Amino acid sequence: xxxxxxxxxxxxxxxxDIDEVSAYLREVxxxxxxxxxxxxxxxxxxxxxxxxxxxxxxxxxxxxAPGPAPASLEAEPAADSRPRDDGHGSAGGSFLDHVHFSxxxxxxxxxxARELARPAGSPARPDSSPRPVAPxxxxxxxxxxxxxxxxxxxxxxxxxxxxxxxxRLLFGRIGELLRGEVPELFGDFTVRDGSWVPxxxxxxxxxxxxx
Length: 211
What we know:
Blueprint lengths: L6 E6 L5 H11 L2 H12 L5 H11 L41 E10 H7 L22 E9 H11 L6 H17 L1 H4 L2 E4 L2 E4 L13
Antiparallel strand pairs: 1-2, 2-3, 4-5
């Protein structure tokens, strides 16, 4: 059977209301973070999605000094475990849960589309296991929205050597798009023979390293 070659487009991404963010930071004395954020934007190296992730990570702790946030996220839980309280004081469980992207996936086999459309927490085949593809399995177009923790997990598991070829191709393309959108949150991945391997399970966004 010929390999299906689906296409991927990002059609929605986070946008910060910088006026409201600024007003909050003035209330809590967090202007230093905003100064670092402004410099990052001026250099053309920062995106709203990265800023939102960094804000979500810092806000419960009230840590606004420029540079990496203090939290250690080496043990960031995978998307399929999703504890609801990780000590961040956030109902989302992880700062990555607050950052969502929406994709149009075109030409995806119906069997894969059904897997991606499952509600979170429903029983599902492990992401990395091969899927049988029935002859004549039609392709469909799909709108798919996911948070960054889910996306990191999906890109890793669905490009693994044991995953089916369609998933590896599709999620490799998603990984490339996200590495351009949020380089601080996807830049730790190394691509090895088509497999996306992270250097760590959690990845903390960094705004400004200057003293």
